[in-house]
Amino acid sequence: MWEDVLRALALVLIIEGMMPFLSPTRWRLLLARVAATDDRTLRTAGLIAMIAGLCLLQWMR
Q1: Which tens digit of pLDDT belongs to each residue from 26-40?
Q2: Is 27 exposed, middle or buried (0-12, 13-18, 19+ CB in 10 A)?
Q3: C-alpha dihedral sign at 14, 18, 21, 25
Q4: Is the pTM for the entire model greater than 0.85?
Q5: How many structural domains are present in the chain?
């Protein structure tokens, strides 16, 4: 089980690192936009991302 968790974490790190590696300028602009976003919108986006991830995991099984 821990192997799967570490693999998933590794994939997250790879995917998260792609944008700053490929386009650092756009990444900074995106981070500035996110920083200016209100808490409610960020929480909603986080909830949607978690639900999408759970749905994807269920669909894969």
Answers
A1: 999 999 999 999 999
A2: middle
A3: negative
A4: no
A5: 1
